[in-house]
Amino acid sequence: MREPVRTLHRFSFGTLWMRRPVRILAVLLLLLVAAPASSQPPADTLIVPGVRIGKATLTMTVDALITMLGEPKTWYEGFPGIRARTQPGVLVFDWIGTHGLRVATRDDREALAITTCGTQKYQTATGLKYNAPWASLERAYGKPTVAIVIGPHRLAIFDHLGLAVTLGFSSSSSREWVECITVFRPENARRIWKF
Fold first, then answer.
1. How far is residue 188's CA from residue 160's CA, in Å, rounded to a whole number?
2. Going by DSSP bridges, is the β-strand pair 52-53/111-117 parallel, antiparallel, or unpaired?
3. Would you say residue 6 lies in a domain?
4. By three-state DSSP, how is residue 173 classified?
5. What's the rounded mean pLDDT across residues 66-89?
6. If 0-12 CB within 10 Å is exposed, 13-18 middle and 19+ buried, where does residue 177 land?
7. What is the residue range of 184's domain?
8. 16, part of any domain
9. Which of 12, 88, 140, 145 is 20 to 30 A from 3 in CA distance terms?
10. CA distance 164 to 44
């Protein structure tokens, strides 16, 4: 008579039954964790307050930005539309038509601020972009350090973040929307704007 063969592993239908839900739960958790990363805009279109807009960063020299973007179409003293509230000596190079960007400087070497206007190409991780309603700005960043009314525009400055947003207003629809988004070094707003 033969003895039954002993195995080292015990097999149980209960163990098999438990493995499948654990695997499914693990996959669902992985997808849940990965979801926010996949919903974030690509790096070359991301606005990071106090740091950059797309590939244009505040650590780049004006020459490096010109090399990357090409010769500016035009330049201004002060920001268009809110020139009266811009500090004297701030020059703004304009690539709005080609890249949707402006770069402000004082000395032609250091970028003080980078602005995007008129394009939905760029957005923050919270989804703030051109033409977004005022409520989305307030929801994402709270109350601004200061809000300045300039004709039909309002400039909301979040100095501690290095973020400023120019808002347009339509009297016919009573709607405020994002016209321009500017990044600058945190706590440096007074170098750029009068308030």
1. 9
2. unpaired
3. no
4. coil
5. 85
6. middle
7. 43-191
8. no
9. 12
10. 20
Structure tokens at 27: 């996959």
Assigned domain for 72 exists: yes
- 99-156 pLDDT per residue, tens: 899 999 988 788 999 999 989 999 999 999 999 998 899 899 999 999 998 888 889 9
d(CA 46, CA 155) in angstroms, rounded, equals 21
Beta-bridge partners for 155 = 148, 166
Instruction: Please report whether residue 182 resides in a domain.
Output: yes
State how many domains the chain has. 1
Tokens (6 digits) for 115: 């602005």
**pLDDT at position 31 over 50:** no
Sheet containing 153-158: order of strands: 74-77, 91-95, 101-105, 111-117, 175-184, 163-170, 153-158, 146-150
What are the Cα distances from residue 67, in Å, to 17, 111, 117, 153, 164? 62, 14, 21, 32, 25
Bridge partners of residue 92, in order along the sequence: 76, 104
